[in-house]
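Need fresh eyes. Consider my entry:
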Amino acid sequence: MKQAEESFFRQRQQLIISAAMSCFSRSGFHGASMADISRESGLGAGQIYRYFHSKEAIVSETITSIVRAWSAFLAEHLPQQHSTAAIIRSDSDFWHQWPLRERRLLLETYSEASRNERVRDILAQEEALLLTTLTSAFASRWPQLSSQQRLYRIQLMLLLVDGVACRAFGDENSLDDTELARINAILSQRIFC
């Protein structure tokens, strides 16, 4: 019976987080209210408080969830990209695999990190794990590079991806194919030491 109760508890938490993600992607962490989350989840506020002691706990769990999903996405998809255009163009197949709701939540998370040390810590911890995973994944792709050169290259790729994530709702016509070719050439050289 205990296992069934724990399973039900986790299912309810996930229902609440899913509802919160929808609310937060529309209104932001500070714009969405507990009433919004209650309405979206179909649960009363009192029921929600059985699973999370505060809105801040829901925000924290949502941030953790989105950051882990983002890291898992990057760990799976970034090593498969062989072109800078694939990661810089927000209309590429790479980005179509990361849903718009999650893009909004990621942008909201980055914004929250600028004013919340706890969120910065969550991002830093997950990035450290991601770097370890990507370093291993890229070892076979760039065997000629030292581990430090590989790390620098991965960090540059992550900066590019984060930049695209942050400008996801901006001007799509600002990319130049010549500039993309130049960036690809830079990434293919052994200049990162």
Notes: Residues 2-27 form the longest helix (26 residues).
